[in-house]
Amino acid sequence: MNVVPVAEGFARVPVLDVRALMEPSSSVAERLAVATQIGAACRDNGFFYIVGHGVDAGLQQRLEDLSRRFFALPPEEKRAIRMALGGRAWRGYFPVGGELTSGRPDRKEGLYFGAELGDEHPLVRAGTPLHGPNLFPREPAGLREAVLDYMAALTQLAHALMRGIALSLGLDEEYFAARYTSDPLVLFRIFNYPPGPEHADDGQPSWGVGEHTDYGVLTILKQDDVGGLQVKSRAGGQVSWIDAPPVPGSFVCNIGDMLDRMTRGVYRSTPHRVLNRAGRDRLSLPFFFDPSWTAEVRPIEAAALGEAAADDQTERWDGQSVHAFRGTYGDYLLGKVGKVFPDLRAGVLP
Ligand SMILES: O=C(O)CCC(=O)C(=O)O
Ligand SMILES: [Fe+2]
After folding, report:
1. CA 216, CA 260: separation in Å to the nearest integer?
2. Mind telling me which residue stretches traverse the membrane in this protein (predicted)?
3. Which CATH number fits the domain that encloses residue 239?
């Protein structure tokens, strides 16, 4: 496996070539070599770039171009698919300031999507939050197909990466699929971070997204060439914020709370945040690969894991423990998303 050389300054978010996980013809040794690199990154900062992922560059470009065209539409056209119209499925458009992190509005607008499920799907019929049909805009034409094709491609990629993560923990390659992700909860977002003053009226930085961790298992993020993503590093026992700048052709991967929980803190869900200082719009497209809604996520009993890490509840961005929680992944997620969109919560959540 090749580790792509990176310039000084962002060497601490490593760039990994994951080709061997994508190709059925690769040898066990080749797959293990990638897995070892992934394992090291997960034990270190919990963030890594991937290349050699095989996701079609033309599809990515098409999605990026169409997304820019959507955000450039007049506000009333974007509001035609506002999230309030998505109901329990929790889909659609929200304007700048419409989403909160730790109670503060983020300086971003965005589109929420998920697996496209019709009314006949059992979870939709049962009124399960975050499941249902997407709200696609009329304009620009083709955005619907691009989003659906991209979600399909990233779902395949996520399954392959989960096989690598399983190998990295000394587990059977199908460990996660067999227990949690054969029917994953897939959530996909397209964000536009507009330029603006670096500080809000109260003197705080004007975060595009405030400090947070992701909730599920694995996040695969496509970002444009603007930059602004920062990762909380604990390298050498020191807490510092390091940049995860754009690397052409790559995705940024990071692990979520459920993998932190499963590994008893050995693989941490690392806090991150975004500040767009570039003076132009920043586009980012996070894809969240989560356990199925009804899964109860349990610690892995594996010798490979060694000692559990200490619970980091007191240091966590929201003061919550990912280890003490009892219930299904759906329960966990609802507790989180209700805080992100308090207005919507009142209308659609149980
Ligand atoms: O836009 C980014 O770079 C990160 C977005 C993010 O962290 C999230 O949506 O969870
Ligand atoms: Fe995130």
Report:
1. 9
2. none
3. 2.60.120.330
Note the ipTM here: 0.99
List the residue whose alpha carbon is closest to atom 8 of ligand 1: 286
- The dihedral over CA atoms of 33, 36, 38, 41, expressed in degrees to the nearest 10, equals -130
Cβ of 271 less than 6 Å from ligand 1 = no
The string of pLDDT tens digits covering residues 295-319 is 999 999 876 677 667 778 777 888 8
Closest residue CA from atom 3 of ligand 1: 229
Tell me the per-residue pLDDT of 26-43, one tens digit each, with 9 for 90 and over.
Answer: 999 999 999 999 999 999
Range of the domain at 35: 3-348
CB proximity list for 6: less than 8 A, separation 6 or greater:
14, 15, 247
Tokens 């759906």 belong to residue: 330
Total count of domains within the chain: 1
Alpha helices (H) along 265-324:
none
Which amino acid does the sequence have at 108? Answer: K
Which bin fits 127, alpha (ψ -120 to 50), beta or left (φ > 0)?
left
DSSP letter assigned to residue 140:
S
